[in-house]
Amino acid sequence: MKMIKTTLALACLAAFTSQSVLADDGSIQGSLLNNSQTSFVEGAEIKIKELAQSTVSRRDGSFRFANLADGDYTLVVKYLGVPTTEVPISVKGSQVVQQKITLPKADKELDQVIVYGLREGQASAINQQRVADTLKSIVSADAIGQFPDHNAAEALQRLPGLSIERDQGEGRFVGIRGIDPNLNNVTINGVNVPSPESGVRSVALDVIPSELIQSLEVSKSVTSDMDADAIGGSIEVKSLSAFDRQGTSASVNVQASQNQLRSETSPKISASGTHVFNEVLGVAGAVSYAKRDFGSDNIEANGDDEIEQRYYSISRERIGAAVNVDYRPDFNNQYYLRTLYSSFADDEYRMANTFTFDGEDSEIERGSKDREETQTIFSVTAGAEHQLNDWLLEYQLGYSKADEDEPDALYYTFVGDEMAIDSDMQGQIPQITQDAAAMDLSNYELDEVSFERNLAEDTETMAKIDFTRLWDIQGKSVELKFGAKYRAREKSATANIFIYDGDFDGIDPAMFATAQPDWGLGDFGPGLDRAAMRSHFADNRSSLELAELDSELESNGASFVNNEDIFAAYVMGRMEWEKLTLVAGLRFEDTDFSTSGMRVELIEDEQLDLEDVVNTAWQVEKSYDHILPSVNVRYEFNDKLIGRGAFTQTISRPKFEDSAAFQIIESKTEEDDGVFVTEREAEVGNPELEPFESDNFDLTLEYYPGSIGVLSAGYFYKNIDNFVIIADVADLPQWDGFDEVMQPINGESASVSGVELSWVKAFDNGLLLSTNGTFSSSDAVTMFDGERYETSLPNQSDKIGNVTIGYESNLLSLRLTMTYKSENLEEIDGELIRMEDAHQQVDFTSKYFINQDMHVYFNAINITDEAFYNYFDQRNNNAQYEKYGRTFEIGFNWML
Questions:
Q1: Residue 86 shares a structural domain with residue 206
Q2: 143: pLDDT confidence band, cut at 50, 70 and 90?
Q3: CA-based Rg of the chain, rounded to a whole angstrom?
Q4: Euclidean distance between CA atoms 701 and 696, whole angstroms
Q5: Is the CB of residue 654 less than 8 Å from the CB of residue 689?
Q6: What is the pLDDT of residue 690?
Q7: Whole-angstrom Cα distance, residue 95 to residue 107?
Q8: Is 729 in the same domain as 851?
Q9: Residues 118, 157: one domain?
Q10: Is 649 found in the same domain as 567?
Q11: Counting beta carbons within 10 angstroms of the beta carbon of residue 691, is it exposed (0 to 12), middle (13 to 18) or buried (19 or more)?
């Protein structure tokens, strides 16, 4: 395999050097600015009228045409919202013609009713979507600021086909077309983003503050020069560059927010700035700080005999920074450095009451969880591009690291036996009856104390190189592109868990009692003093009895290291006729995977009077490769109507916790009616998992009416092999003698199909309307306990949608938005099907412009106080109900 990699890399270099000869043809280089000449224009279509060649202006407004013979040409510039512009230009000899183009005023004098360019970001996003070779949706920095979104995940939920998974009411993971977020690819400035959390691939985009983002691009169909691990799609996060704007710019934002559920007020401040020195060196920077104090009220059940009440008090602190440098000595040579740092600290205190109903033997556990968890992402990218006569050479080096540090998590559990409690366990909020004794903490005993220090780290190093050449052959534009990429990734989880279960004599739980918390779902009972328990543990830890075997089992079983080396090489071509554009190619990806962990078995044997933990090192290596074709077709029926089609093959590698080398086994031998019986249960990873493999078909029709707007309809179909489920595999020969073995396994096949509809319209009177919906269905086939089952894909929502109604005048901007996500299968929990209920959230944002540089704003989030709800089998059987409350924000923004 190393020989193949070396040969491919040398072939790329040889192909480049053999063609890199001096040419006598001329070229056109230029840049495109908006009407006020304050910023560059991205996404404009620029054609040479006399030839088949066309290009698209980049984020710095630049464009280029190479290999042009002597002659007079006409540049035709098309950009939605402004009249088509034609610019005559002459090329002589091998000269490089420089041309700056300023867009004319908007159609129908729209700039008279849209002050300060609020629609400019929306226009840019729609234009970029229009000229893209693939199916793409884009959120610009301006559009992010038009909604009350705290992070990148929440900003993406406004796009067609995108939905989010929430944590404590905040958007966290992004799903594309209802598909599991683990099946997406996420990059920051071209570098793949590792995940801070220990077991998953999905990137929690709530770590990235929205203020650090220049744009978010979602590709629903891929080309061969893109990473293949994108069954759902690919999300590209782009941070600010100095050359995104003309001259010098700066902005400052100050905000205060209040969460009604906990009546807490929280601050937020951010700033950004750009400066270009002599049109050669540019520096851009952004910083963001936010602290949010809030909480949630939660009630959960197991569908049988247990209900848990939970009271959360949470403080989240986000710190983000980005510094980007661009050096452009001339148009043909560009160098850049991109950095992004984000820290997300989640300080959580949870009190919980667990009620187990068993008649006179009913039991209550009152416990606490006290932990501060910090997730960080650091990404740095350095690269360059060079126009070397006929060839464009691009190369990039990147490093990114994410970690999740939980240094001092403390759990206390108090138990009360033979409690007088009862519940019918019915309804979204099941009610519990309990007597005065159950509400008195002095009737409980301290049962267990747990202290944890956990660390997850995910590091990736990347290098890539790309070569591109354009020809004009018999009136057709032909582009060849090829290159290679190498990624080295290491994912590790280290757990240090200390469980104390004895020497609690003389401890009266009433010493930790506080007033009953303001829990809005019923009677909660006494609270637990966070500071008192933390102080008690610090003073008495050395005298507590450590459950050494349980601690060793939990610590070693949750620790593993996974390594993944990926080499990719590709070749693709882009052919452009008068109306038709075809992009087709092949991508080769080779994956070397290894995992090391521990097989940990806890043995409790009454017959042999034995208690022990047996640790056995476990290491597995696995390699696999794929050759993946992609075809994207774009047909322009006329200036307003565009059709697209795509066939692609993509993959998604298994989650790290699913493929990790770990086994946690518990063996108990106890006497039962004079006979010793052994029961064995296990939870194990599966390093032999195959990656998901998907054939993807897309067909879309887009209508652009000529102003700022688009009406689109699309159909998609995905056929997925090797999807992963968690199953009981105790019946397999290798697990003979086990009563239960839960392990991730590959299913047989699955399919997802659906329709995606979208309408965006900016009316001349200032009214804005945006609505989209995705309607899909999925079918999955798998084996469980030796039987064949047909289900839907986990986390697949068959209906997701957004509606936004807005209005803009010269002083006021208003947005009322609604996001909707239908119910979906979350998991099969034993014999119960756990469903996540539909979720609908309404938000409002308003801005008042003091002048061109300053505005104040007010946001209302979750206006209808929508709850999060999961249920078992039927909607009346609670699995989890959680309330977050409404949040209100007021802020001030200044921009130069």
A1: no
A2: low
A3: 30
A4: 17
A5: yes
A6: 94
A7: 35
A8: yes
A9: no
A10: yes
A11: buried
Mind listing the pLDDT tens digit for each residue in 563-597?
A: 999 999 999 999 988 889 999 999 999 999 999 99
pLDDT in tens, 350-363: 999 999 999 889 99
Domain of residue 610, CATH code: 2.40.170.20
Domain limits at 52? 2-132
**Per-residue pLDDT band at 152 (split at 50, 70, 90):** confident
For residue 125, give the H/E element and its range.
helix 120-131
- Tokens representing 751 are 């399919």
User: How many structural domains compose the chain?
Assistant: 2
Q: Does one domain contain both 125 and 166? A: no
Q: How far apart are CA 592 and CA 470, in angstroms?
A: 35
Residue 379 pLDDT exceeds 50: yes
Closest CA to 724 of 205, 176, 200: 200
Asked if 353 and 290 sit in the same domain, the reply is yes
Separation of alpha carbons 164 and 181, rounded Å:
9
Residue at 478 is within a domain = yes
Sign of CA dihedral 199, 204, 207, 212: positive
Region 724-753 average pLDDT: 88
Give yes or no: residues 94 and 235 share one domain: no
Asked if residue 351 belongs to a domain, the reply is yes
- The candidate with the shortest Cα–Cα distance to 304, out of 886, 884, 877, 889, is 877
Contacts of 674 (CB under 8 A, 6+ apart): none
- Cα 43 versus chain centre, distance: 25
Sheet architecture: strand order including 213-219: 136-140, 213-219, 233-239, 184-188, 191-192
Residues 578 and 641 in one domain: yes
CATH number at 113 reads 2.60.40.10
Q: How many angstroms separate the CA atoms of 6 and 10, rounded?
A: 6
